[in-house]
Amino acid sequence: MSTVRKPVPLAPMSVIDFLEWPGDGLGRRFQLVDGEPRATAPASATHGLIQLTLGSLIRRHLIDTGSPYRVVAEPAVVPRIRANANLRVPDLGVTCSPIGAGQIELPDPVLLIEVLSPGNETETRRNVWAYASIPSVQEILIVHSTRIAAELLRRRADLSWPADPEMIAQDGPLRLASIDFTGPLADIYADTHLA
């Protein structure tokens, strides 16, 4: 049986059009960037392990502390800038707002996390600056997948963002003030070849 391919639309799409678009028929994942659906490459196994482990560590922390926050894998978020033509998909997002049945967009994310892979660095860094335009976002974490390292951007009290991220080295602690989480950075690399 042959697979029917649905073409990627050539005209700019709105977020509403994008959410109604059935995809290309190949099961690929897309995000909407300035009105253009862009396919995302499949993640490496290491990327997936890091994403799952970090999500699990955050979830366990939130449960153990009785936090009202919840962590979501691959949530849809809409940047404030050009909101009608952009819908991005980070690896993880954390919110305190209720999530309704069938809701696609993660409401009021406070923390967004990207796992940086060699093949997605340019797109990931573009997404980070789109995330910074979301008023509720307090922190953006970029976790490397080829070495034990991370970059953390934290919104300042005056609501501005620093020019450069805080670099977290292999033996450093990971501190996420938005959810009151602290743990060894190395823990999120458990079960990977980097551990």
Would you write up a description of this structure?
The protein is α+β, with helices and mostly antiparallel strands and 195 residues long. The protein has one domain: tt1808, chain A, CATH 3.90.1570. The chain is 19% helix and 25% strand. It is built from 3 helices and 10 strands, in the order αββαβββαβββββ. It has helices spanning 15-20, 45-64, 121-131, and strands at residues 29-33, 36-40, 70-73, 92-95, 109-116, 139-144, 150-154, 166-168, 173-176, 181-184. The strands form 3 sheets. Strands 3-4-5-6-7-8 form a 6-stranded mixed β-sheet, sandwiched between helices. A hairpin with a 5-residue loop joins β6 (139-144) and β7. The radius of gyration is 17 Å and the shape is globular. The relative contact order is 0.15.
Total number of helical segments? 3
Q: State the oligomer.
A: single chain
- Strands of the biggest beta sheet: in what spatial order? 3-4-5-6-7-8
Give the SSE string.
HEEHEEEHEEEEE
Query: What ranges have pLDDT less than 50 throughout 5 or more consecutive residues?
Result: none
Major sheet attributes: 6 strands, mixed
Helix content bin: 10-25%
Share in β-strands: 15-25%
Shape: globular
Under CATH, the homologous superfamily reads tt1808, chain A
Could you please say which CATH topology applies here? tt1808, chain A
User: Over all CA atoms, what is the radius of gyration?
Assistant: 17 Å
Task: Compute the number of structural domains.
Answer: 1
| Class of secondary structure makeup | alpha+beta
Number of strands: 10
How far the N terminus sits from the C terminus, by CA atoms, comes to 43 Å
Q: Judging by the overall fold, what is the CATH architecture?
A: Alpha-Beta Complex
CATH class: Alpha Beta
Write down the overall mean pLDDT: 90
